[in-house]
Amino acid sequence: MGKSKKKQANRKVIVFGTLVGVLTLTSALLLAIAPAPLRPEASNTLFAVDAPESMASVFQTQIEAKPGRWKYIYIHHSRTPSGSALAGEQQAIGMGDHFVIGNGDGAADGQVQICPRWDRQLSAAPPVGAGDIDAACISICLVGDFDHSMPTPMQLRRIQSLVSALQGRLGIRSQDVVLLADANSAAGTGRYFPMTAFKEQLLP
């Protein structure tokens, strides 16, 4: 009788030990295959809809976006056929900007990517071809080469919604939304950007 109880106790210890080992191995495997967390330098993404009020997430920043801090909005193209802010380390897209709007090649068409500079309310850096950029200027990059093609209809809707939201919340006037007609430069909007039609839809 004593030997039987001893065998049962040993069996329970073995079963328990095996169970703990399996659970530990499973946990290790799950950790190994889990995706790495985004680095602080990586961009957050926002899939926005057309209405300006849907852009509320744009203002959920690490540092609060306060009226008076920002006085201008500057829009330019990447002068590349594809790209995204998440690939910025390789392509230099969005590294100096506050927002990047994808064209469907590298990022979803019309996807508004919120860059680290905006999250931390840091000043933008000038794109290639621009000498300088005002410290109070919000910089938005549209992915695409608009010297050779137009922005997508979705990009145009998103840029309109984003700019309207920024104007409305931060009190930025239409005359302080800056678009440069520079051709063959990432500092401009390219020759095929519909500048006149875009400006007509800005808030006063």
Strand order of the largest sheet: 1-4-3-5-2-6
Sheet of most strands: 6 strands, mixed
Tell me the helix content: 25-40%
Could you tell me the strand content as a percent range?
A: 5-15%
Shape: globular
In terms of structural class, how would the helical and strand content be classed?
alpha/beta
By DSSP (H or I, 4+ residues per run), the number of helices equals 5
Number of strands: 6
Distance between the termini: 93 Å
Question: What would you report as the Rg, rounded to the nearest angstrom?
Answer: 25 Å
Any low-confidence stretches, pLDDT <50, length ≥5? 25-43, 46-52
Secondary-structure element string? HEEHEEHEHEH
Mean pLDDT: 80
Could you describe the 3D structure shown?
- The protein has 204 residues and is an alpha/beta fold.
- It has helices at 2-33, 88-91, 116-119, 153-170, 195-200; strands spanning 44-46, 72-77, 99-101, 112-114, 137-142, 177-179.
- It has a six-stranded mixed sheet.
Compact summary:
The protein has helices at residues 2-33, 88-91, 116-119, 153-170, 195-200, and strands at residues 44-46, 72-77, 99-101, 112-114, 137-142, 177-179.
List keywords for this structure.
alpha/beta; 5 helices; 31% helix
Outline the fold blueprint.
Elements: H1 2-33, E1 44-46, E2 72-77, H2 88-91, E3 99-101, E4 112-114, H3 116-119, E5 137-142, H4 153-170, E6 177-179, H5 195-200
Parallel strand pairs: 2-5, 2-6, 3-5
Antiparallel strand pairs: 1-4, 3-4
